Amino acid sequence: MLLVLCSSALSAQERTITGRVIDAAGRQPLAGVTVSVKSSGTTSTQSDDNGNFTLRVPAEKFTLLATSIGYAPIEVEVSPNNREVIIRLSKNDAELGEVIVVGYNNKKRGELTSAVTVVSSEKLKDVTTNNIGNMLQGKVAGLQVVAASGVPGAAPEIRLRGISSVNASQSPLFVVDGVIGGNYDPNDVESVTVLKDAGATAMYGSQANAGVIIVTTKKAKAGRNRFEAKVTTGFRKADFGNMEMMNGNQLYDYQKEFYRDYIPGESDNSYKIDLLKFYAERPLSLRDQDYNWQNTIFSNAFMQNYYVSFAGRTEKSNYYTGVSYYNEKGTFMNTGFQRINLRANVTHNFAKWISVTNNINISASSGNSYDYMDIYYAYLNLPWDNPYDSVGRPRYVDGNSTFKWWSRDKINPVHTINNSDHPYKGFDVNYDFALNADITPWLSFSSSNRLAAGYNKSSNFFSPSTAGTYHGNGFLDELSTLNYGVISNNLLKFNLKYGDHGISGLAGVAYEGSKFEVLGGSGKGLPLGLKVLNVVSNSQLVQGYTNEAYIQSFLSQVNYNYLGKYFLTGSFRVDGSSNFPPGNQYANFPSVSAAWIASNEDFFNIKNVVNYLKLRASYGVTGTQDIGAARYLGLYSLSAQYNSAVGAVPLQLPSPNLTWESKHQINVGADISLFNRVNLTVDAYHNVTKDLLLQVSQPLSVGFEQRWENVGEIVNKGIEIGINSTNIKTRNFEWNTDFNINFNSNKLRALPAEIIKTGSWAISQIYRNGGNLYEFYMPKWMGVNEQTGAPQWERVIKDADGNVTGKELTSDYALASFQEVGSALPKFQGGITNTFRYKNLSLSVNAYYLYGNKVFSNNLRFVMNDGSEPYLNQIVLPSGYSVWTKPGDKATNPSPQNSANSTETSSRFLMDGSFLQIRNVTLSYSIPDSYVRKLKMEGITVSLSADNLHTFTDFVGQDPQTTITPASFATPGVSDFKYPNNRQFLFNINFRF
């Protein structure tokens, strides 16, 4: 009876209500809306497909809370007698009303007519780095971010929608707080906006050929003063990829293969190992000599980052100050990078119609770099050699050393590193001044200006005590650069409304001028213990030059919208560059884009499924003049001498008709919201770069091999898909997913010759009409001959007219045919992020993937050399690899006795560069408000994070991420002995007051 009475009493304190959730117009039921009793952690439910819900509630008066993605939350009071509730949800226009920086203007998200992606600071802060590019990896559809080096402080290579030029820079244009260029610290970033199509980028004209990335820094927000402090510390560990070097025992057993009784062409081979000869030349004691070079030269490295900021508002001003210190020790001996940054901005409103903003950013950095050959030796020196003597000092080694040194190159890199130095340092100052004045209610004037200056100095020093090239003489090379410039944008802006019509726009002028000064010197013959230029005694060399350039522009834009459903934007920019001859210095860059919010139409009756639908289209032209100054002039070199006087030698043919590259871009896209849970963005683009700036081969009679001309085209076309979904959302648990993917095709056409071969070394690439950019061109590897163990390549047989009549295998490398074997550009790439939250605990997992590119692993010709270099260390053969030992073997690696030319350039070392990388995992915990308030704070968050946790790939080598930028000593898609990328494990704590 007692149990029954208690049960009856509890039932009397609760009751059941029913209800329905509909849109603000009362037309559509809303499914999946979370309805809960306010201040109750357990009493909640979700509306069904018809908007209906049932809920157990308190008997007394209470408040219902209804929430749904895309709608404003609403609270409804329910009286004790009310058993049926109707809840109306209004569309949350906060997201559509978010102000986005595009071009030289700001627009609400709902007004955008072009392909734009915004990444908030919340989605950037999972990765700790000194460069915003690394933070963007995998988070923007169409944005390829390649960490080509793990050097401390190194910036990644960034490409947007493929490669659209051969010689011009393909890094996107960075715009900081509305002005081109500029410095900042990632901690100061509020958001990053990526402009992809010409509808968004054409306003930047000639500098937007590779896309635009706009960085908006933090400023004071409404409310009270705010203070923030963040501490990050942890360690980094070198990632050697799939290149595990042999230890002493493994190398000892491997080298037995060099002693097989096998002489190609002989009939009495036993194919057995001659152990007597092997032990005579490789004593058993070598098994116990196992020195790990990588563990000595590479080690775990400490990393730390500190940041404090203060932001506040007064009646007429708002201000922000941020200071950060970043210190990253290198995993390679004696390398590191540190940077301190100060950013301050203040906006003062002199009156309601006029305001002035002052912004200054000061940064200073220093660090130590490395010499490529030291990394080379760290991999290739044999484990049988100890770099330290009996008292722990690095050994000096050369060809005359009295002790046994097994490694081929008589160099001890540990000794070299301790007797060399590669420091650098620099500082940058940016000062921005902006004036905004409202002339009339619909007309305003804005002027944004920047003064910038930077100085950098680097040095390469080798003591006379080092072995090798500089032994006895030493070497010192110093280089200083000074750059400074000014940017000024002056615009009139208007904004008019007539009933259902709205028209806005701008018109104005822009100017950018810069100067670059270089001064340096080098020499040998240094006294021991000194490393200053004034003591070098021989081989002195002085260098110095300046480069000055300017761009002046006229720009305009008009935006029109009708009923908040139809949008049209047109822009026109004229750029003038000093890099072209008179008559060709100016170019026009127009664009037009339009959008239609179909879901705002009265006839759109599927809002319960498709909550939002916008269709977009754009066309525009951008260009480039980024090939350096004076390419159109006939030049002489003054580096020669005649009768002890300066002599002039012809250096460059004139190109009086040289003009701009122009990139013609078409984009169509759609923004869709489904079920109030899924946001989908789809874009398709077709970009054609015309009048490529190329060095074209000349007839022998001209006397010059090449001349700059406008020839050829590059076509990039592709599809981008971005998805943001709320998979689960309850009061205590939430799961969100961000996914993006980009498919891109790159083709060449209209080239002046059928085939253009590129590359200054044996690893060459070929350009041809209809072919791919960065297409590798080399003999095709066909494996190992099962009977002889010899390497095999493919020979293409052609008739007198050049037609292919057949193919055959050959073990003569000289007869192998050069063929196209794959491009360094990927077929698709993207990223995925899953975020889980349970109460105050959250977990974020971010992955980046890339598929379909080829990477030439140049390391393998040294570390998998088939015995051609027996005194270089080798890698532990990956699973599935084997060495030929006798007739009939199906092996991947040829016999050491019959491996002539096996390491010459061929597709043997051309690997699939596809990979999936766990880019970041972050586990964070927000201290409950009840505890934080006792400390008089706004919030405290602690987190553990891991970067570059694991890479899933079939690539054999250091790392499938390799350079995609052509340079004097680099070919896109070629992986060499690089400074390895790092895994990073960090602890973070963030305080907010």
Please supply descriptive tags for the structure shown above.
993 residues; mainly beta; 22-stranded antiparallel beta barrel; disordered N terminus
What can you see in these coordinates?
By secondary structure, this protein is mostly beta strands. The chain is built from 11 helices and 53 strands. The strands form 11 sheets. It has a 22-stranded antiparallel β-barrel. Strands 3-2-5-6 form a 4-stranded antiparallel β-sheet, with no helix packed on it. The protein is globular and about 105 Å long. 38% of the residues are buried. Residues 1-12 have low confidence and may be disordered.
Describe the structure in brief.
With 993 residues, this protein is mainly beta. The chain has eleven helices and 53 strands.
Topology:
Layout lengths: L1 H11 L1 E10 L10 E4 L6 E3 L5 E7 L3 E7 L2 E8 L5 E6 L9 E4 L2 E4 L7 E5 H4 L7 H5 L6 E4 L10 E4 L12 E4 L2 E2 L8 E7 L2 H4 L10 E6 L8 E13 L9 H7 L20 H7 L11 H5 L3 E13 L3 E13 L6 E16 L2 E15 L3 H9 L32 H6 L1 E2 L1 E16 L4 E20 L12 E24 L2 E24 L13 E25 L3 E12 L8 E12 L12 E15 L10 E8 L2 E8 L8 E14 L3 E13 L2 E5 L8 E5 L2 E17 L3 E17 L5 E4 L5 E5 L6 E5 L1 E4 L6 E8 L5 E7 L7 E6 L4 E11 L2 E11 L2 E4 L2 H4 L46 E3 L2 E12 L2 H6 L4 E14 L21 E2 L6 E11 L1
Parallel strand pairs: 1-7, 13-16, 48-52
Antiparallel strand pairs: 1-4, 2-3, 2-5, 5-6, 8-9, 10-15, 11-12, 15-16, 17-18, 17-53, 18-19, 19-20, 20-21, 21-23, 22-24, 23-24, 24-25, 25-26, 26-27, 27-28, 28-29, 29-30, 30-33, 31-32, 33-34, 34-37, 35-36, 37-38, 38-46, 39-40, 40-41, 41-45, 42-43, 43-44, 46-47, 47-50, 48-49, 50-51, 51-53
